[in-house]
Amino acid sequence: MRLNEEGLKQKEFWTSKGYSLPQFDREHVTAATKENPFWIHFGAGNIFRAFQANVVQNLLNDGVLDRGLVVAEGYDYEIVEKMNHPHDDYSILVTLKANGSVEKTVVGSVVESLALDSDNAVEFSRLKEIFCNDSLQIASFTITEKGYSLVDGKGEMLPSVVADMKNGPEKPESYIGKVASLLYTRFQNGALPIAMVSMDNCSHNGDKLRAAIIAFAEGWVANGVADEAFLAYVKTPEKVSFPWSMIDKITPRPNTSVEDILKADGVEELEPVITSKNTYVAPFVNAEECEYLVIEDAFPNGRPALEKGGLIFTDRETVDKVEKMKVCTCLNPLHTTLAVFGCLLGYDLISKEMENPTLKKLVEIIGYEEGLPVVINPGILDPKEFIDTVLNVRIPNPFMPDTPQRIATDTSQKLAIRFGETIKAYQKSDNLNVADLTRIPLVFAGWLRYLMGVDDEGNTFELSPDPLLQTVCPYVASISLGDNVNADELLSPILSDEKIFGVNLYDVDMAALVCKYFTEMVAEKGAVKATLEKYV
């Protein structure tokens, strides 16, 4: 059983092993898509393959759609070269359900894959051709929040961006420069309307994409390398829209246990590829069953009935409420809490942490007692039901191979949104008191203890990637377990940093409590566990 056009002709072999196969005429869909594409997606990663591609497949199966997806990869071209092309753009979605059952789906809705590479004349020309087509309604993105940034960690413009703005839209090198170039091609061919939809997991994602595109338009116009009217085009919502969205679906790195299931079925050539850019990709993706994609309904060239596939379309204000509900209270803070303490307490799976009564109680208190009182109900999703599902179904799912180490990545960039917004809401409230927040400071102390790179048993561990490690780790570098530390003296530069916590912890009278917790956590081996049990 090989995952390609030829191998899938043996339908009975696949179905006998429990695989759901595409129920549409893929040859016909491919031809129709190439002639009149309606949706191109940038970012050929796991979330796209597990979510958007599967939604489109279901709609093709149901006859709601008659065309599929085009995907472009602009960061790591090897994903397309070594995974999409050898498998004729098919992938296997393995849905891992909380009850232990596994759903296996061969997804064939992606019918064309291209490298967003201006040095690849053939494929870049094809992308321009797609953007010239008036049938194109949606260009969507899952390129991570970093993908929209035009500056480096010091706030200085990236050299590739500087060069692109000087040289114009003909052959850009930077990611957003290449996207802006395609948009310029669309402008030159009738200023056709399009929705540019960021689907990345970050706040006000559409604004981040819009700001980056407008920066290029302004730079090109100022340098005299693009038509002045291009700037007006990208600034006109009736021509180019940048809807906000909220996406939620956990898609961990392809796991060997899932690979073993597929191998036992007789599926061949499942070996993952680690690209030269260190991207880990496989012919399959493993994901949870639960998924949400809420999108601001702003599509100047129209859109198909994607709501029939489970996507939710609403207004911008509601998207914002849903996003805040998830990111600030109902999921992300709970994940970060478990990530920090999971690393310190030696866990290798987030789900296992929910078997620890103290950790389970901690996230329940942070979610229900500290966070929920400041959540604004968005109307389309109930916040309490959302937390119920997160804590009782999603995080405890023992079949989801998600690790605290993965979730601990970039924690310094997450604390302000995931906890700082709740603190600010308490400050503004007439009925709530910041002093009642006693578990969120426990997480802050846990993160500072995590930065030592020493677990609760005294063993060193590798910190997950984070752009601020070189800035914050020196403050705890001199501390050893058993030291009697002056935490306030050592940590005050971090505790007062609004960029990290969203607030100056001294201004909200929280710094002393964080220092108290931290001091207890470094007292001896086992002190993290003891501190949690004492205060939770």
Detailed description of the structure:
The chain is α/β, with parallel strands linked by helices and 536 residues long. Helix content is 44%, strand content 11%. The protein contains 23 helices and 15 strands. The chain has a six-stranded parallel β-sheet, with helices on both faces. It has a four-stranded mixed β-sheet with strand order 1-5-4-13. Strands 10-14-15 form a three-stranded mixed β-sheet, covered by helices on one side. A hairpin with a 5-residue loop joins strand 4 (91-96) and strand 5. Helix 7 packs across helix 8 (205-222) and helix 20 (487-495) packs across helix 22.
Sum up the overall morphology in one term.
globular
Quaternary structure state of the chains depicted: single chain
Which whole number gives the mean pLDDT? 96
Find the structural class using helix and strand composition.
alpha/beta
* Relative helix content: 40-55%
Count of extended strands: 15
The strand order across the widest sheet is: 6-3-2-7-8-9
Number of helices: 23
The major β-sheet equals: 6 strands, parallel
Distance linking N and C termini: 52 Å
Strand content: 5-15%
Q: How many whole angstroms does the radius of gyration measure?
A: 24 Å
> Low-confidence stretches at least 5 residues in length (pLDDT < 50)?
none
